[in-house]
Amino acid sequence: MAKVLTGKEVVSQLSDELKERSEILERRGGSPTLAVVRLGERPDDLAYERGLTKRAEKTGVTVRKCVFPEDLSQEDLLREVDVLNHDSTVHGILIFRPLPAGIDDDAVRAALAPEKDVDGITDLSQAGLYTGSGVGFAPCTAEACIKLLKHYKIPMEGKRAVVIGRSQVIGKPVSMLLLAQNATVTICHSRTQNLAQVCREADLIIAAAGHPGTVTAACLRPGQTVVDVAMNVGADGKLCGDVDYEAAGKVAGAVTPVPGGVGTVTSGVLMLHVVTAAEREASRSMLR
Amino acid sequence: MAKVLTGKEVVSQLSDELKERSEILERRGGSPTLAVVRLGERPDDLAYERGLTKRAEKTGVTVRKCVFPEDLSQEDLLREVDVLNHDSTVHGILIFRPLPAGIDDDAVRAALAPEKDVDGITDLSQAGLYTGSGVGFAPCTAEACIKLLKHYKIPMEGKRAVVIGRSQVIGKPVSMLLLAQNATVTICHSRTQNLAQVCREADLIIAAAGHPGTVTAACLRPGQTVVDVAMNVGADGKLCGDVDYEAAGKVAGAVTPVPGGVGTVTSGVLMLHVVTAAEREASRSMLR
To answer: N or C: where does chain A have the smaller number of CB atoms within 10 Å of the terminal CB?
Structure first.
């Protein structure tokens, strides 16, 4: 039976650590603050916001809600982002996306100050991840995979990692993060031939294809660690990942559940980025 | 016996094509122009410059030599780069590196206009390659590998490619380019375990480790294509690649020689970038 790598225990330990770091920042003059920028009242956004707010409370992060009508013009949105970029009491900015139709996502991403880009959406954050320059932050879900693996002491150095999916949000950034951990990384995608064989060679599978049933029993061998990043709605209407969880439970060495795995860690990583951004700002202001 | 994939035939065809494109640009008012920025008289730089100048002649590209004393200050160098950035008759800028001690490479890279960055050294070019946004250009040697494979009609889509090396100049960018060709890409490096086994799984090996003897007979199987990107000086003082060329010649399906393989194509790709930059500038000026 595979060990179940739950996110709860990871995020709980991370939250305790962040709470301490937030308290130190608060004593030095300012609580780490995340501005969330929301246009309209989409149920998905509201649910995400509630989750974030809870996690923020547990980590000592202040959430500043910046809510605008759904029909806010692009010009006005860019102006609001600019105000937040220049507000020294705001350390991280999270813009709920997808943005309403008519707003150019690229223009909004480009407007965001990279040092406050706590979800790694700007080109410079992405370049930082690719070049290892350390500018900006990684996308939270990608980094949550690494946090989870480290928490459970799953070795990565020199191991073979297979990443399924090549999106800018998960597949590519998690590949770059695994490479930085000295894993030998194989990036698979929809055009990959013999996916099952490629997966069986891996010590570590990161499934981020976004299709239920991508990782079948044929992909698995004993001893593997299987991280399921996807959040799909299955044929039965229930939330499910990319991995045949029952098969993985029988065959693999360890597996993350969906829900309750990587997704649970993601909001904790977002808070980690806010606290880190606040610490960096505090060091800079000491030098000034 | 493996087929020998020489660079000469690739660069010759590319040059003919570029010559035509350059002539069209010239008739429309301006020859595609590459500014080369050289500090001092390092023999390596001079040899590279001679090679470039020859290739430029064959492709209809004008080379403007911007030569400065070795002790030029960083401030003055940045000012010269700025002048070239704003000079509409210059389409590409190549700065010979490594720069003399005392000059901050990062500052110089950051000063370069991404649209003239024909060797893909700026953060925005790198981000463009990683995100697929198409901003800037890929590093020339990385793109030369793809040009060579396409010329010889080596299939990449769905094939397993193993890249040895994870540098920003070759390993990572060639991995991104192979991914864009829909290959399944494995990135190996100094911490990879069982390199020989990983290599034997590949249809295509790109060796860019920079160590002679990295790809031994044990890494090879019949039918593979082996691209050797490295330029090492062997124990005998002769130029050699990463691949045991004799073994590859016997076992593999196709192999690139060193010298005379990828390196030969690189200067052609640089000229391709200059001509492309000039064409983009010409389209922009038509819109103005």
So the answer is: C
B73 and chain A: CB distance < 8 Å anywhere?
no
Partner A contacted by B130 (CB < 8 A):
yes
Q: pTM here?
A: 0.95
Q: Give yes or no: residues B144 and B91 share one domain.
A: no
Residue A284 within a domain: no
Residue A132 lies in a domain: no
Say if the Cβ atoms of B184 and A186 lie within 8 Å.
yes
CATH assignment of the domain containing A67: 3.40.50.10860
On chain A, the residues whose CB falls within 8 A of the CB of B157 are 191
The dihedral built from the CA positions of residue B149, A184, A186 and A231, taken in this order, carries a sign that is: negative
Q: Which two tokens stand for residue A84?
A: 């937040």
Q: What is the C-alpha R_g of chain B?
A: 19
The whole-angstrom distance between A193's CA and the closest CA on chain B is 5
- Number of domain units in chain B: 2
The series of mean pLDDT values per 10 residues for chain A, 288 residues long, is 97 98 94 97 94 97 97 97 97 96 94 95 89 88 98 98 96 97 98 98 98 97 97 92 97 97 96 97 82
Q: Do B130 and A130 touch (CB under 8 A)?
A: yes
Find all residues with CB under 8 Å of A196, minimum gap 6, and list them: A216, A218, A219
| Same domain (yes/no): B145, B106 | no
Taking the alpha carbons at both ends of chain A, their separation in whole angstroms is 56
Q: Has residue B132 been placed in a domain?
A: no
In a domain, B75, yes or no: yes
Question: Is the minimum CB–CB distance between B169 and chain A shorter than 8 Å?
Answer: no
- Structural domain of B108: 29-114
Residue B98: asked if its preceding bond is cis (omega within 30°), the reply is: yes
